[in-house]
Amino acid sequence: MTDHLFNLHGDVLAAMRRGPKHFTKLAFALSEADEPADTELSHFRDRIVAAGPGEELTALWHRTLTAWDLAEQADWSTAPPRTDARRTDTYNRLGFSADLRKALDEAVPVFKEPGPTVISKEFTSWYSRDIAPARSFYWTSYEQLLRRKGWSDAAVSSLDEASHAVVERLSDPIRTEAYGARGLVVGYVQSGKTANFTGVTAKAVDAGYRLVIVLGGTLNLLRGQTQRRLDMELIGQENILRGADPSDPDALVGIDYQDDEDWPAQFVSHGHRPFNIERLTTRDNDYRSLLQGIRALEIEKREPHLPLYAPENLHRAAARVMVVKKNKSVLTNLVKDLKKIGPILREIPTLIIDDESDQASVNTSDPKKWESGQTRRTAINGLISQLLGLLPRAQYVGYTATPFANVFIDPSDGEDIFPRDFLISLPRPVGYMGVQDFHDLDGEGTAEETHVRGIHESTGDRLQEAMDAFVLTGALKLYRADHGVPEGPFRHHTMLVHESVKMDDHADLALRINTRWHQAGYTSQEGHARLEKLLTDDFARYADAGLQAPGTYAELRPYVSRARQLINAGGNPVVVVNGDTDRYFSQIDLDFDRTPNVWKILVGGTKLSRGFTVEGLTVTYYRRTTRQADTLMQMGRWFGFRPGYRDLVRLYIGREEPLTKTQTVDLYEAFEAICRDEETFRSQLSRYAELVDGKPQVTPAQVPPLVSQHLPWIRPSGRNKMFNAELVEIRSPGQWVEPTAYPTAPGDLRHNAEVWMPALRSLSTDPAVFVTLSETDRGSYTRYPAKTAVLPHRQLLDIMSSLTWGRPDLFAPHLAYLQDPNDSGCATDDWVLVLPQTSGRTSVEARIGDSDPLTLVQRKRNARGVFNRISGMAHRQSAERIAGLLPLSEEDPFATQFHQQRRGVVLLYPAVDRELGAPADVATRGHIDPAEVVMAAAFIPAVSRTAKQVPFVRFRTIDSSRDGEAIVTAG
Questions:
Q1: For residues 161, 162, 167 and 170, what is the CA-based torsion angle, rounded to 10 degrees?
Q2: pLDDT 10s digits, 227-270
Q3: Is a pLDDT exceeding 70 seen at residue 491?
Q4: Inter-residue contact 218 to 325 (CB < 8 Å)
Q5: Which of 244, 273, 774, 879 falls 20 to 30 Å from 941 in CA-CA distance?
Q6: Alpha-carbon gap, residue 805 to 813, rounded angstroms
């Protein structure tokens, strides 16, 4: 039966490509009848109110309203996207009544989740929302595929907006002057970045890009994964077959996917196409060199006298797509072939997509070792640079979840891959399990209680418990599949064990797990009792109430037997994943696409931490330490999409893992810290993303985003990726800051003494007596007298800003922190200046200028010219009481007297360099020349009782072309 109302609404909405218009007027204009009954909006409202799940008309309006809600550029509304005001503007233009608006709002709530954050240069608009639909064949096909896969309207619209934001910032493919944009897209670990660059590719080839090079992983396994995804969802059956008869086995010889269980049903079919996409690589074959490669890259022009980028040629030519490894020999072959093609290279609009762009692509050679005026590049970086040079119309877009290495690239290196044109931060996708699901970042919540199981010295290694959880969650998945939960996500079921990077350790660990598996007694009464207790104590407590759950363990027991059989298939439940070659991976048969069911315990981690999605990952056992934030974040394989089993996900993680012989670290705390670093980075992007008068506040090259480091022992990236990183701020609430790099020149020392003189003159005549209590011997204490003064924060800041430093770069990050007195900064209104007056073996009193007599101390510089220490450890305890770090004590009354909220402490020492002699020898008749004394200080900011202060450091990128120029203005 024909649905006239649905057909009418489809026609009317199709005519609203540029935004909403008055619905009834447009319906009359499009209708063939003189007075069409279906334009009566009350019928529409009644249908929306009565609609059940999957009702076509409601789905049509859901797609349309969501797209209008999310549109970043809407010349028909001044309201921001994702707001009620935007929806109101939509209804006003449609001419809808209040009751119809109410019905639609209930059926289609406004999607208010944040969209992509964009920092961009100004660009020439060529890919507007008006123009894009005119050439959108492959994008429309991809969009329809995503909807068939179950993507929500909001998810599809979000991808549409994010991919549009990338493509519109590329160069117009028919532009006469060649220009290559450089951009970076930042996603989350295992969050669907591939979907974004597939959407970008679809829109780019629709718009006229005729060569797409995807740099996909360092192993063919990873490259093949990406190739298959593009073939299945974008390139499609017809472009893969290239005219071969799918019913003729002889015609299919040499065509891939004939052994793939998803072929052809799950591969998109395009039917008639406006132009073909030719693959230069296949699932099993990377780019091949010599004549085949040259011929494949030659593009015929319909109008030979016109350049390829002329519309008459461009939109009739086939697009070429290749997915290549980041491999020196593969990329060298590609570069060699390109060099043989000739002048047409300069005419080919090209898109280069670099998946995991912070891996291998970044130049990690040390600039200090370069020859004068020459940039020395690492292999992959050099080959990417050559590609960009050979293809002047090439657009480079990097994708990564750990962008710190990319933003540390020198912006002035025009041949490198710094994202000079745009930085886009993708929003956290709906349904994604990320940091908020494993960490209670605000101090409240149940994320840790639900999903995290700490490994402490007191708990033992908990490995058997983790294995039991793996068996039990497998059984629960099978139970759910039998009780109406879609079983697609349960096809694979995996556990990841990562303790070490050493292959020998992996072998030992695999043997240990195998032994425990066969001793676990999963068929015995004892084993079942253990699993029943784990179900009762853990998984039943945190089960998703919206999913079917067994009432008793007896009800689950048959599924436990089946789960054990699946895991033990082949006689071995463990797969060691640590090889360096594609041949190795083919031997272990770890291909989630071709294998019907992978139910295994995977030991290793590093080789699976980049680009490779561990399907069905439910239990993770993680105890490996590293000092690099991006490496640690990539190990977070437990982040991702877990439909139908997110409540079953468990993370067993080391809380007291050895980092050095004397230091242990909490890996759960480390992950929380780097996640805070990542969120700080994203907030920096948001800070600069808002347009002012329609123009960007800053460009990526002008204000490289600041990168944070919340833990002192774990850096944002590897040392060899941070040669262009400049430390710009160290925030240290409740921590001592002790600069040690003071000048040696007499003039500088005299200047510093003069800077301190106003504070010295304000010191009290009568000393305060501070008390240091013994931490081990109760009742034992020491005392020291000190001259004191209270300095306003502004005065101390002026002093610190005016001093001359032996290494200004070392103190500048602390100064940046002091310049923010708010709760988010040093949270300090004033400072107690404390000058200990002690009578040590080398101490002596002397006047500095017109000051009262002060105690001089002796300090020694090390071989690098900096002091090893400044403050006396016995002097710190009272200062920490004043600042609020330690509780007040009746036995230290002067500290109690000085303490108040938002007050810090400065310990100041007039120090004599040991190389000048003892203080008594340097001082003359009770005076010391200010040119011979170092005014050395240590300070501790106030500790706030109300604000949550988190210590961290921040880096920024050094632009070598702007030596000495401030890139970011503080404040």
A1: 130
A2: 999 999 999 999 999 889 988 888 888 889 988 888 999 999 99
A3: yes
A4: yes
A5: 774
A6: 13
